[in-house]
């Protein structure tokens, strides 16, 4: 169990001051919208090398839109992925740290203007911890079934967590996890970083199951006794599945529910393209239904942008 003297829950503090904690929206697809070429196994982490200023600008724009947190460009930043590009472990660690530094700099620049503080809590920085499948860069985070033990998954996550947990972020965003085993592997590591809080969110394939096919309610129930996990929920999942998922999961946990769906389009991992129709029209209106079901941390994932987050902020910060 974490040391109570060092462990701090920034989500509980935020929710004690406002009814909804507004997350940011997509990073990678927003970078692409602004002209970045992310057709690369590193995805958004590629710009840590090539265009760090653009990452910082997107973080800043989400703060302006009303986001209470910046989620860093470390989702696909792993030692294995950087090694394939010829970077040493030291260089890879430096780039992971840079992802957090960029978000902190954007936050500090935003907060330095007194006008931005009116009616706002100071925004947080969440270090994105992508799943094992993100390192494979083949869409496995939407399938699961890795064929790895919990111990093997813990061994994969530990070195990156050692970097991210000590680089200045306020909490960890362990996101797009397709299966319970990966969530339990990460949970087993958190006591090694007992100053850090984390949220855990699963990718889901329908209104009841995570991407691997396990019931989401059962997954969050097994995380309920982990003190450092301060919120649980769903991300990068079609918006139409969110009400059912939240309603079921809410019955299985005492933790705040986090939801940040994608636009409803489907990702083609082979061709690195999104297909289908967006269901993110009236994003803020849909979010009111998620709130009614019990969601308290609300934002967007792939193919959502600052305009969607601004609409969320207008809806919930007027309460």
General description of the model:
- The protein has 319 residues and is an alpha/beta fold.
- It has one domain: Homocysteine-binding-like domain (TIM Barrel).
- It has 13 helices and 10 strands.
- The longest helix has 23 residues, at 89-111.
- It is globular and about 50 Å long.
- The N and C termini lie far apart (36 Å).
Task: Write a short abstract of this structure.
With 319 residues, this protein is of the alpha/beta class. The protein contains 13 helices and 10 strands.
On the 0-100 scale, what is the average pLDDT?
91
User: What is the level 1 CATH name?
Assistant: Alpha Beta
What is the CATH T-level topology? TIM Barrel
Q: Say how many strands there are.
A: 10
Give the biggest beta sheet.
8 strands, parallel
Helix content: 40-55%
Strand and helix order: HEHHHEHHEHHEHEHEHEEEHEH
Instruction: Assign the CATH superfamily.
Output: Homocysteine-binding-like domain
Number of domain units? 1
Identify low-pLDDT runs: 1-5, 267-280
Number of DSSP helices? 13
Classify the beta-strand content into a percent band. Answer: 5-15%
Q: Between the first and last Cα atoms, what is the distance in angstroms?
A: 36 Å
Based on the coordinates given, report the CATH architecture.
Alpha-Beta Barrel
Q: Briefly note the structural class of the backbone.
A: alpha/beta
> What best-fitting shape do the alpha-carbon axes yield?
globular
Q: Give the spatial strand order of the biggest sheet.
A: 1-10-7-6-5-4-3-2
